[in-house]
């Protein structure tokens, strides 16, 4: 009889799923067969519930999980009398779920997940008013307190004595919670584990640990593995040796996760130390050993907090992404600073895209003054600003980092350069400042290693009919060091076309002196950090004097940046500085305002008339 019950359950599951898949059509023959199977099961349930208990195969051979599923070991026969709400479950219920069956469907639904209760009850009542098959999935907690995924398949029963719906309740936890390749838990299980952890008693601490194999995609394409699945299986087995396999989660992109309880920081570090040691060891393959590049992100959290599951997962992704950018290896912990940085990056990218689409890239100018020529404006530095609908004008700190990381710096710079070069031929500027002033334009590290930099720059210069000798491109040491050979080649070509090169922020790095000898330069801009408190620090004054004298011997023009006070201006002029850029003469202003607000010759603010 046991095998008969198993056969009936198997048929009901197969027929119900097939009929549910083609709900738009009516398969009368299939529906009739399904109804017959359910009626037979109901008779068995009423006559001898114990028959529902499947026995091992006669030869006691070990069955795989898939084979046990086929034999319906995880099925419960159920019947619901719609009129009285009475619910009857076979004896297998208590064996599988470790608690007594509820007497009514309404009470049984109270054991379901809170998000499923009303939905399941409503679907059952809806099915009771229609003929045919119904299939409902939900989560219920078993007697051990663990959530299980179940699928209810049923068909209406027209028996005059027991009208209602009869069918099979199947445990599909493995189907819903398991990754088919590795056999580990999947993303749905991770959500459930996090939800369970958040519902623990107040003060209980947990950590979401996320592990990402950074070089796994490359390894899967190498000669060491036949395909991606083979590497996924190997990694799952490797992690399963150290971590609890029933709580280990496999995520897309060769990532894995774990929710672990801990008492204090020291205990958590003690748990993670063996993991770090294991990941640092090579993986042996038939064709040789391979080394894994990994990052581990850890998000500690307290139970009974207002934290949401999706928030925890976002924080884990953020931690791992940040760790990948800083380098592989090591264990990285989430902090609110990462969240704030991500917020700024997201807002910065949106600012950039909006500015590019709506002509919101603005060119601001700050004059460079020759003190040797009585304050004549000899150049302007073009500074980028973005139009911001919320705050009016966005300063570089709000978007430059996002521009560099997304590669949008190229498009931004193209628009800025286009507007800056027009100033050289703008009649208003020519009338006020003459035909000799220079425009300074900053180049990022991405631009400096762009093979099309020179061609793009010459194209824009020719577009405006500007003189390339009036263009001064500012670079930094870090930009050059990002790709030295290509950067040097671009700089040499630019100078061959008459464009001058200035080394910006001189003195802020560690290799400035060597750059003076190796780079094709025309101008040195001394960083404002040298200038701050210059008159009060003798060492800075000695260094500044030496730098100015050295640059004069090397025939470089020198611009001292960041001069704001009269005392500082006097000090740097006494040292021999000839060109000054700073608030003491003017702050950056929109290019269209410059001709009306500035004269061709500027006095320090302290000497300007009120």
From TrEMBL:
<dbReference type="InterPro" id="IPR043128">
    <property type="entry name" value="Rev_trsase/Diguanyl_cyclase"/>
</dbReference>
<dbReference type="InterPro" id="IPR001633">
    <property type="entry name" value="EAL_dom"/>
</dbReference>
<dbReference type="InterPro" id="IPR035965">
    <property type="entry name" value="PAS-like_dom_sf"/>
</dbReference>
<dbReference type="Pfam" id="PF00563">
    <property type="entry name" value="EAL"/>
</dbReference>
<protein>
    <recommendedName>
        <fullName>EAL domain-containing protein</fullName>
    </recommendedName>
</protein>
<dbReference type="InterPro" id="IPR035919">
    <property type="entry name" value="EAL_sf"/>
</dbReference>
<dbReference type="InterPro" id="IPR000014">
    <property type="entry name" value="PAS"/>
</dbReference>
<feature type="domain" description="EAL">
    <location>
        <begin position="345"/>
        <end position="602"/>
    </location>
</feature>
<dbReference type="InterPro" id="IPR050706">
    <property type="entry name" value="Cyclic-di-GMP_PDE-like"/>
</dbReference>
